Amino acid sequence: MLNTANLSLEQAPPISIPFRFFLTAPLFGLAAAMLLIWYGPEVMTSRWSPQALALTHLITLGFLALVMCGALLQMLPVLAGVPVPQVVLVGNLVHPLLSVGTLGLVIGFLLGSLQWLKFAVIALGAGFVIYILAVGVALWRVKQPNPTVTGMRMALMALGVTVLIGLTLASGLSGWGTLNYPFLYTNVHLVWGMLGWVALLLIGVSFQVVPMFQVTPEYPGWMRNLLPRSLLLGLAIWTTLYVTAFIDRTTLFWSFACLIIMLVGYIAFAVTTLMLQQKRRRKITDVTLLFWRVGIVAIPLSFMVWAIGRMFPKITVFVDLDMLLGVSMIFGVAIPLLNGMLYKIVPFLSWFHLQNRQLAMMCMSVQIPNMKQFMPDAPAIRQFWIYLAALVFTLAAVVVPDWLARPAAVLLAVSFGMLGYNLLQVVLRFREVSSELDQAATSNQDG
Amino acid sequence: MEHYLDVSMLEPCEPMEQTLAAIEKLQPGDYLKVIHRREPHLIYPMLEKAGFSWRTDPGGPSEFQIYIWRRDDQEAESAVADLPG
Predict the structure, then answer these.
(1) Which helix (H) or strand (E) is A415 found in, with range?
(2) Is the CB of A215 less than 8 angstroms away from the CB of B10?
(3) To the nearest whole angstrom, how far is the Cα of A300 from the nearest Cα of chain B?
(4) For A371, which of B13, B49, B85 is closest by C-beta distance?
């Protein structure tokens, strides 16, 4: 069988597009940590405080969304076999719109400024609409979608719902329109954001990257085929039950039960991933695996603590369970999974682009560093331990914010700073080798 | 002559690195047989650029065999064509 599948660089965006998303993201993480240092414990006393909302969105939009959007633009040609239409234009528009939109939203929250909130609605709205349309066109062009493509489609739909509700909330706060049920909208917004967009994309991508990068067996067929669709359906059912019960002021039992059933699905994914990692054919532990183990173990732990707390409210009277769940989902699950993945994606892209250029130029005199030379383990593992300390302190700070909020913030700042620095080193090395290739090509032509 | 390379236990980008290093050493009449646990779509355009041809045989549920030879090497090409596929 002669295979002429041409999944390659020709379809992928220029490397500067994903790199700018990946290098900007740690800066937003750093900004979130700085905000926590500045405001201290008051950020953690209520999830409704403007400071808490600002911090949450610095992480969810500034770090998570930028990394995920950048990675998806880059990975679609490779994982799904389809290019994003007008990918350069889309990247050039979406990156600045999301970045300034996030800053506008944060400033709007912190200053209570209606103008900044309106600006954020326009910038984030435009950025996400362009992004969802472009990626949506690509994803729905795939004729025979594999489970990863299905997961990405479900995630993109969840992103659409999250953004729509988020924009409605921000518009209401900014004075455009009225907002009748802010509590209801906020809960639906964050559930679709975390359990929809973030979780479904991670699940869909894991189906490919865990077996590929961690050299494990494949996920079971039933899980790959059923899980993303079932979870999206579950989210829709939960929303209907929750909204109806909330507006009618009847019992929330059925929506709670629906959520618990869905959590079983996420936990099944987490347990399966851990079991696959145990069956790794290659037993060398690398930094991505360390980050992934934390992120995956945190899924059942966070849900169980939350569910038990809900069932036995008397034992958790001193802890804001929702805050604890939010912190553990964002800092314990989403951040380490993306952090770990960045340590694979950025050196891989660097190596892959340079290798392709070298072959195209037939310029073998320049040695292309391999992935480990682009991103050595030692600095990445140092960042992993700092991150882990930051996670422990941040979780503990939910219980005793007065003592631990600022130490947690300092550790988070160091962790994001180190991540940004490490990624920057890869990009600088990429540019260095790239210019060596240019010089070699010029001297070849001259010779 | 057949050269053999098993990259099925390696993580990206080592399979590609080792394959590209191995094909550089192919002598006239030689081809490389690569054992991989996935179909290596990303390497095909690289092989194309570097002047190589290939044939991919799925050898089982979790194994692929990829035969690679220099595009202008008739002898290697017919040796691969004679292999059961």
Answers:
(1) helix A401-446
(2) yes
(3) 28
(4) B13
Contacts of B39 in chain A (CB under 8 A): 3, 5
Report which secondary-structure segment, H or E, holds A321: helix A321-327
Q: Are strands B52-60 and B2-6 parallel, antiparallel or unpaired?
A: unpaired
Chain A (336-355) residues lying within 8 Å, Cβ to Cβ, of chain B: 344, 348, 351-352, 355
3-state secondary structure of B51: coil
Which amino acid type is present at position A347? Answer: P
Q: Which residues of B touch A215 (CB under 8 A)?
A: 9-11, 37
> What Cα–Cα distance (Å) separates residue A55 from each residue in A86, A105, A283, B46?
33, 11, 38, 44
| pLDDT computed for residue A26 by the predictor | 98
- What are chain B's domains? 2-75 (3.30.110.40)
**B59 vs A: CB within 8 A:** no
Flag whether residue A384 sits within 8 Å of chain B, measured between CB atoms. Answer: no
Cα(A64)–Cα(A195) distance, integer angstroms: 13
3-class DSSP assignment, residue B57: strand
Cβ atoms of A352 and A15 closer than 8 Å: no
Q: Considering only CA atoms, which of A152, A146, A241, A237 is closest in space to residue A198? A: A152
% of chain A with per-residue pLDDT over 70: 96
Q: Where are the domains of chain A?
A: 16-143
Q: Report the C-alpha dihedral over residues A203, A209, A214, A219, rounded to 10 degrees.
A: 50
pLDDT at position A234 over 50: yes
Task: For A400-441, write each residue's pLDDT tens digit.
Answer: 999 999 999 999 999 999 999 999 999 999 999 999 998 988
Using the Cβ of A321 and the Cβ atoms of chain B, whether some distance falls under 8 Å is answered with no
Contact A211, B11 (CB under 8 A): no
Mutant choice from B7, B8, B9, B11 vs A, greatest count of A C-beta within 10 A: B11
> Which residue among B10, B17, B41 places its CB closest to the CB of A5?
B41
pLDDT of residue A365: 78
| pLDDT at A10 exceeding the cut of 80 | no
Nearest to A69 by CA among A129, A114, A115: A129
Kindly report the average pLDDT of chain A as a whole number: 92
Is pLDDT of A7 > 50? Answer: no
pLDDT tens profile B51-67:
999 999 987 666 899 99
Identify the weakest region by mean pLDDT among A65-79, A192-206, B53-67: B53-67
**For chain B, which ranges sit under pLDDT 70?**
60-62, 85
Type of residue found at A233 = L
**Cβ contact (<8 Å) for B11 and A282?**
yes
The larger pLDDT score, comparing residue A203 to residue A371, is at: A203
> Which residue from B13, B39, B48 is facing A348, i.e. has the nearest CB?
B13
> Chain A contacts of B65, Cβ < 8 Å?
none
For the packed helices A50-57 and A16-39, what is the interaxial angle rounded to 10 degrees? Answer: 160
**CB proximity list for A122: less than 8 A, separation 6 or greater:** A101
